[in-house]
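Note to self: keep these together.
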Amino acid sequence: MNDKVKYLLSLLGGVLATATKQYGLIFLFVVIGIVFDFVTGIIKSKVTGIALSSKRGFIGFWKKISLLAALFFGVFLDYFIPTILKKIVSLEIPFALPFGLVIGAYIVINECISICENLYACNPDIMPKWIKKLIENAKDKIEDK
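Structure:
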């Protein structure tokens, strides 16, 4: 990797970490989950003989972009709602809103389920079934609440 790319990535990472404060870790988890899901999806397609296609890749790309958009919208709500309440009705919320973190956790759980499914499709013996069930139960509980 050349130095310009490293400097640009460092700058973007620094700006993101500074701007997001408490959200840096959840952003990192979401991005790592998306990358691992992408990689395990490619491995799954090679192992199972499913052909890679640009149409499927294009659809998958936009799905991942929509996940990031949902996360950014959640973070926006976390900042927007208290700001607007303070400006309009002089009401201060004494706690941080959880929209961004909840959406981020939901995305990470979904990516983990997808990663487990991909790995299980590659080799059923590689993934203990209890891990897959544990992650699915966590997803179900989040969806119920």
